Amino acid sequence: xxxxxxGGEINTTERGPxxxxxxxxxxxxxxxxxxxxxxxxxxxxxxxxxxxxxxxxRAYAPxxxxxxxxxxxxxxxxxxxxxxxxxDVDVIGFSLMYELTYTNVVSMLELSGIPPLTADRTDxxxxxxxxxxxxxxxxxxxxxxxxxFIGEAxxxxxxxxxxxxxxxxxxxxxxxxxxxxxxxxxxxxxFMPRYERGRFxxxxxxxxxxNGPVSVSRRVxxxxxxxxxxxxxxxxxxxxxxxxxxxxxxxxCGRGCRFCQAGFVYRPVRERDVDMVIDSALxxxxxxxxxxxxxxxxxxxxxGRIETLMSRLMDHLAPLKVALAVPSLRxxxxxxxxxxxxxxxxxxxxxxxxxxxxxxxxxxxxxxVTETEITDAVQAVFDAGWRLLKLYFMIGLPTETDEDxxxxxxxxxxxxxxxxxxxxxxxxxxxxxxxxxxHTPFQWQPALPIAETKRRQARISKRLKGLRAxxxxxxxxxxxxxxxxxxxxxxxxxxxxxxxxxxxxxxxxTERFDFSLWEEAFRRAGLSPSDYTEAAYDRTEPLxxxxxxxxxxxxxxxxxxxxxxxxxxxxxxxxxxxTGCGVCGDGLATVRVTExxxxxxxxxxxxxxxxxxxxRYRYLCVYSRxxxxxxxxxxxxxxxxxxxxARAGLPLKYSEGFNPKPKxxxxxxxxxxxxxxxxxxxxxxxxxxxxxxxxxxxxxxLPRGIRLEAACAIAASGNMSKRYLQLSYRIALVGADVxxxxxxxxIDAFLSRDEVxxxxxxxxxxxxxxxxxxxxxxxxxxxSETLTxxxxxxxxxxxxxxxxxxxxxxxRERDLRNCRVVKGESTSDFFQDTxxxxxxxxxxxxxxxxxxx
Length: 853
Known about the structure:
By secondary structure, the chain is an alpha/beta fold. It contains 26 helices and 29 strands. Mean pLDDT is 90; it is low at 597-611 and 848-853.
């Protein structure tokens, strides 16, 4: 998947760094498509990208095949923007969102030529900073980072960058002493954990550390309206996991679900102004051309003006056929009007999270939702037109019994009966395992042993067998390892290093996770995972994360734990008044939006268009692809072009039905790695557009390496693929990775035969194709070492040029992948045959017509 590594996406910087710029890299220890879905990276890139004297770039973890190749070729990990080795930048900031990405951090550092352990690094190495949700217990990874940031970095990132920019030549020890004075900064070197009889016994300042506090308070943004949402987010080359515009509408949650770390560490609730949300969403859509806008928060239905926001926003998005997604909708906040608003364009998926099956257990975790509310919500979803529903549960919650598991199954069976009454209805049930997280009322509780988790999974699976519902369980061993690192101390860095040496990478991916390697890593590190997962902590016992203060007092968390075991619920503090958690005060308080102060109408950024399209104007377009853009797949190239047309404001015509798509048809699937001088596609518009105008507007909004070369209005009907039969390629054989036979002799032998077979592909999908009938002509230019050949389509398809050359020369397809392959232009006569006089010609086509006459 080379599109993970080439960069050059829309909305990335076009300039290079200035000599005195601070070189700052935002790193995400996951695959590109995961990292590009993370809103936090987008927010930080937007903030730092506007700072003077700073050059910001991105880096993601290379997949295992790419890592292997980079090691073999001795290529260090590089940035996407300028391909600079990470060892040559000033600062690398990692976003740490998930415990099972820790070995990826080690891999990225080591692959960059940077010692993973802080103790082994010198002043000449980049400063390594970490932040994100996972660092609310920073100890398991403290040995890898010079600095860890606790809390919300929106404002603090500017303070950190400004300090580093103004002190470029300061030795690292002095830098760390200065950085520690910034609120939210934790320097692990200045803190020393203590152990007694192999058990964590507390943490204190290191003997050689400067005088300072023995705790670190998280940083909080009191007013998120001071931090605008990204207006020009980067458009990924490869389809991201969450391939949409994400706009944060609120931060924090007052519901107080006792298992939810985010609900406590992101308090208090702060909501973004309605007009700011609309302005950000529409501007981001204009700059990206994406097809969906997602309103993000921990509980979107609790947003003070959610119905007003959704209605006003969809007044702009619906005419553009842009869908609206509202994840994190609680059952109690779900209303018919909200569902109807979402359905104005397309269904974007629906998940209901009862979390637990019995009312008793839902009261224990403070879910505050009844079975009647759950079933009513399910019925409302199906009545509104959805056909597929997802239910989300957890097992292993404190006090859970087999009777609670049986109640979970009974609830699923109840919903399944409703699904059976829906035509083509479907139900997906996801069951994860509870992980006790720091800074929650359940932080003192142990996690389930693996064997017990599997027993409970088997009980549920047996009971639900035979239902229409598809039931999936989170891997028991993965959940166990999450719990180890969630509750662990600094000694765990030894296990991370050993796991890395054993080959652990991308352990958050089920197909990559190998529990036996982690067992061996802990054995080598002299540690036992069960010491971290199965011990129940006492109220007075120090916890590895006790020196991290989130604002919610330990006394409040312990009281919530007591109320949980008593089955007593706690109301939502944002709607029902303060519950005394300790967060609010000193200028920090819950901020809710109200109707007052909102501006009537929309932002005026994107004008409304007619809801129903009746006209139909077809254009044959020809685009070129070269440079790094040749490494995009066909679907990625098509997505880039379609989103470019949306950014250009072209009046695209859409298909009918509940999931409208722009009517764009690509007549050929261009292979990965192949350049083209002219490849065609047909697009339908609802208005006449001058051909020159179409070409100029679209070309200006395509990424580097892709350009619209020509456009021609064509008849409103007709199958273009029947007329576009000829394909021509030229291959520079000088790039082959193996010695080649005499090419002229190979051509003579090839053309004299009726059958020439290509055989290749992976073990799972062996390919055997007779390529000879597709080849009309073939010629070798010895001086330039270039092979040219013409292909013809048969039944609408033709083989890859690599496969034709592989069969011709008797070498593996992979040995030709470094050869430059160019698809030739073959559409000028096609334009002449298919042109329509209903639309003004381009100047070039008009001149050609006049000359021909």
